[in-house]
Amino acid sequence: MTTPHCRQLTCEVISIGDEMTTGARLDTNAQWLSQRVGELGVTVKFHSTVGDTLADNVDVFRIAAARADIVVATGGLGPTRDDLTREALAAVVDRPLEMRESAMKHIESMFARRQRPMPERNSVQAMFPVGSDEVFNPQGTAPGIDLAVDRTGKPASRIFALPGVPAEMKRMFDETVAPRIAAMSGGGSRIRHAVMKFFGTGESDMEQRLGEMISRDREPRVGITVSGATISLRITATADTDETCDAMIAQTRQEILRLVPEFYFGDGESFEQQHAIEARLRARDESLAVIELGRAAVLGDWFASLGDSPAYRGGLSLATRNDLVQMFAASDFSDAVDQVRTKFGSSWVLLVDAYPALDVASDTPLPAADVKILAIGPDGKKQPFELTIGGHPDILHARIGKSAMAWLRELLN
Amino acid sequence: MTTPHCRQLTCEVISIGDEMTTGARLDTNAQWLSQRVGELGVTVKFHSTVGDTLADNVDVFRIAAARADIVVATGGLGPTRDDLTREALAAVVDRPLEMRESAMKHIESMFARRQRPMPERNSVQAMFPVGSDEVFNPQGTAPGIDLAVDRTGKPASRIFALPGVPAEMKRMFDETVAPRIAAMSGGGSRIRHAVMKFFGTGESDMEQRLGEMISRDREPRVGITVSGATISLRITATADTDETCDAMIAQTRQEILRLVPEFYFGDGESFEQQHAIEARLRARDESLAVIELGRAAVLGDWFASLGDSPAYRGGLSLATRNDLVQMFAASDFSDAVDQVRTKFGSSWVLLVDAYPALDVASDTPLPAADVKILAIGPDGKKQPFELTIGGHPDILHARIGKSAMAWLRELLN
């Protein structure tokens, strides 16, 4: 089942379920798996999605095993009659299904733990094609299947079939499938990741400045993804020990920080600018309130979600400056902002004036417009920042909120 | 190119681009197209995604044309060397590409309209496989391609290749591709849609109560989709005239309202509960402010986005009841809420107490917890509603906000 070290391995990702082919559900598993598999130095060449029909599943698995060295499939491993992945795999290698004792014990123990009797139909989840291996599922009753499919003239293709539930699938991939793929590529069986986050520039500018850093054959690999104008760089190192991986990652981090120091704000997949701001405020023993004018209030939701923190006091959203002045019976706009700082008892106020209205039904980018950002610090000084911004309605409000946070971060440094 | 009326047509959706196979971008086109194609009574059996490699594209199109009656592809129609769909299609039918004058004129006019010179390379976008038809693109320079691929023993497979830009792709599908598919199925060339929105029950309960209404072979078809616990029913009628379509839709709407009257809140793809509330408030000449306590502030953003409306006054978000009392130097919680109503000058206040904290990095459902909703009306009466709610962290805050809106809608009826 091993392949020579030097060969560039290819992969196909398969998603199984009528809910995807009918469009009832958006498939996010294929994207996640493509990123993870790519980080291991394996080229994902195809995705395929197929409904809950046995003949179609057999076809899709046959085509995939013929054209890809590694196949990672999700879905079709549940206990119902719709779940056909076990049968399809058995048909692909023309071998029967057999009961796997270890899997049966695990399924029984999952029901025992939940203090529920095991329905008879769940025993089908312990059936495996003869000659396949188990992929342990610590969170659910559906074990995964690891099956080699012989091919004439080239090494066997390796199929990993995982459940479609994202939480189960992700953990099984990281814990079991990724090390097995890394072993196939010969790059060492330990895999370590680090994620660095950036805001303030576009993807193509970032790619240009990083140059060779994001080349596919570099070690460790650096992957770039963008979500709502926030850029994530994910560093993946494979080696024989965690220590070697970590040393490789540390050096790559240094190089990245040398190339693009100014847009970096922190580390970790779910680390956002509000977390960076919260940490800075805590370190300074200060706090923040936000005022959002216009047709959105994204900062209020993001900061509220920080969890119990003395650094965030609350948020206020209103349509216009005039509404703000009226609400506090203030003498003018400046007085109203000062009053907000007093009422919320915060050292800082961050104000967005104003989010533009979006036509929610439209996919058309909005023309650039001026947005005023105002940060009021502990000394009461009002520091303005003007933004000219347009773009796709899906992310325009988020980009404005994030630009406001970038301005506040600059003042907090 | 026509197929007999009675045959159940099948479809494959193809997405083209390295940005999808590497996982850099999430493919949402395939889901959108699957819904639209399904509404026309055609069964989508497969999705395939392929990178920017000619041989792989040719393979994917060959497999698709062999196993599906209709193929809808997106991507690969730009002017750069990465854009290979034209070449791939020519290879599939083994015919050369030829310059199409009408397409060339359109591309030139698009550049003339933007007052920019046309780069030489854009002329490649006017190249079509011999024997193919154009799919007009009113918004961009990339025309689509409509190509029949002959098959032995069955009718030709029909490939529609569209650009990957969602706004262009969607309009071209609705305006040109959908009528051509409807003509293939023999159901009449006019297509009309209606979308009804529901909140307050789960997808499976909805399916059970709708029964035969959502059967695939019913006319007009009713499709069900769920987004953040809001259920959309999309009715699609095809007939020879718009009037016949509309009459069919009207009757189906009546039947649906008879089966599930209590969760319905309005019509239209982007119509949400906040729009229903805004309309009710305007009709009553009343207005609303929201208070959100805890670890989210989703209502503030949703209501702010309504656009200039006298019916929404603003939102306030704070961590705890105690913060609210302190902010207004109130005697107690009840007094603080009254003061908010006065300060915002609103007839109603809707309060959520409180959104639970989420572990953002986790995919694990949260256990059910109590959340208190409070609505204060024009008469100052405080009307409480208690919710016990848990579930997936991705949508839990949204579900709580939507449940609060459902409570307010009830009081406004």
UniProtKB/TrEMBL annotation, chains A, B:
<protein>
    <submittedName>
        <fullName>Putative competence-damage inducible protein</fullName>
    </submittedName>
</protein>
<dbReference type="InterPro" id="IPR008135">
    <property type="entry name" value="Competence-induced_CinA"/>
</dbReference>
<dbReference type="Pfam" id="PF00994">
    <property type="entry name" value="MoCF_biosynth"/>
</dbReference>
<dbReference type="Pfam" id="PF18146">
    <property type="entry name" value="CinA_KH"/>
</dbReference>
<dbReference type="InterPro" id="IPR041424">
    <property type="entry name" value="CinA_KH"/>
</dbReference>
<dbReference type="InterPro" id="IPR036425">
    <property type="entry name" value="MoaB/Mog-like_dom_sf"/>
</dbReference>
<feature type="domain" description="MoaB/Mog">
    <location>
        <begin position="12"/>
        <end position="183"/>
    </location>
</feature>
<dbReference type="InterPro" id="IPR001453">
    <property type="entry name" value="MoaB/Mog_dom"/>
</dbReference>
<dbReference type="InterPro" id="IPR050101">
    <property type="entry name" value="CinA"/>
</dbReference>
